[in-house]
Amino acid sequence: MGQKPLSDEQYRSAFDVLVQGSKMSYRDFIIPQLSQLLRPLVDAQSSISVLEVGPGPSSIFGHLPDRLRRKIGRYAAFQPNSLFANETYDIVLFCHSMYGMKSKRRVMEHALRMVKNRPQKGLVVVFHRSGSLHFEDPVCHKMAFFGNGVVRVVDDNQDTDVGNPIPADWRQVCRTLGRRGEAYSNHLLFSAPEAMVVLTHDATSLPELTTQVPLADSGTTIKNWMARS
Ligand SMILES: C[S@@+](CC[C@H](N)C(=O)[O-])C[C@H]1O[C@@H](n2cnc3c(N)ncnc32)[C@H](O)[C@@H]1O
User: Fold this and answer.
1) Ligand 1 near 193 CB (within 6 A)
2) Nearest to 47 by CA among 88, 75, 86
3) Burial classification of residue 227, based on how many CB atoms lie within 10 Å of its CB (0-12 exposed, 13-18 middle, 19 or more buried)
4) Could you tell me if the CB of 95 is within 6 A of ligand 1?
5) Which of 6, 29, 199, 206 could bond 10 through an S-S bridge, CB–CB 3.0 to 4.6 Å?
6) Distance, CA 219 to ligand 1 centroid (Å)?
7) Average pLDDT, the chain
8) Non-local CB neighbours of 150 within 8 Å, separated by 6+ positions
9) For 42, what's the count of Cα atoms within 13 Å in the CB-facing half-sphere?
10) Angle at CA 209, nearest 5°, toward 203 and 211?
11) SUPFAM superfamilies under this entry (predicted)?
12) How many domains does the chain contain in total?
């Protein structure tokens, strides 16, 4: 299959399918994890500031519990290629918005310069379908995985309302790659595990730290998987 960029209409339509089909990941992973990260910040401050990169048509912060939402005193959003602000924030969020960014490491370094270091440590939070997120040098503060994430799509031979009819061989590829759930026999399920990666200003301090504490040699067995990464 050749690769062709999607028109804005096709992008919107595909995005709607993804959002409708992955509600469980937002409900069971993204919103609870984000709420947990925000709690210590909102408990320590009268209000917090957030920057959301690539929110799409609606902000993820709108789905947080009332108590947390009410504490957001300053909110800014950036859509493609506008990440040039000078302000700093308590939270910079990339929720499924890093896929098209060529140098994820450069974007991350930029984002780290945009989070506050005091009085509370600001957080850069990335939600990403796991498997392809490597920042190289910056060190994570926290990671979490949601292995049960799925995207559920109706399989009813209907065409979408934009663009050309869906070719039969595309449907065949989807039916080969997807599986059918027992409860939704007219749906195809695609496994879509999610990862959350959280970084703070300290992400770039490893070289400074290793001048004082030498790294363990690679032959040492380390039980904690987070300490291993
Ligand atoms: C898959 S959507 C995710 C939308 C929303 N965050 C969510 O989780 O439902 C990806 C979003 O990232 C935005 N995006 C893509 N490249 C970007 C860039 N270079 N800078 C900022 N936003 C970008 C897109 O415009 C789109 O809104």
Assistant:
1) no
2) 75
3) exposed
4) yes
5) 6
6) 41
7) 86
8) 21, 22, 24, 25, 189, 190, 191, 192
9) 18
10) 140
11) S-adenosyl-L-methionine-dependent methyltransferases
12) 2
* DSSP characters over 164-224: SPPPHHHHHHHHHH-B--SS-TTEEEEE--EEEEEE-GGGG-HHHHHHHSPPPPTTS----
Ligand 1 centroid, distance to 160 Cα (angstroms): 22
> Alpha-carbon distance 79 to 89, whole Å?
17
Q: What is the model's pLDDT at position 176? A: 93
Q: Averaged over 4-25, what is the pLDDT?
A: 86
Assess whether 62 and 133 both reside in one domain.
yes
User: If you search the block for the tokens 């067995």, which residue do you land on?
Assistant: 221
Is residue 194 over pLDDT 90?
Answer: yes
- pLDDT value for 136: 72
Are 68 and 101 in a shared domain?
A: yes
Measured by CA distance, the residue closest to atom 21 of ligand 1 is: 80
3-state helix, strand, coil in the chain (%, to 5): 35, 20, 45
Residues 29 and 113 in one domain: yes
- Tell me whether residue 112 is in a domain: yes
Q: What is the largest CA-CA distance in the chain?
A: 63
| 71 falls within a domain | yes
Q: Rg for the chain (alpha carbons), in Å?
A: 20
Same domain as 65, residue 157: no
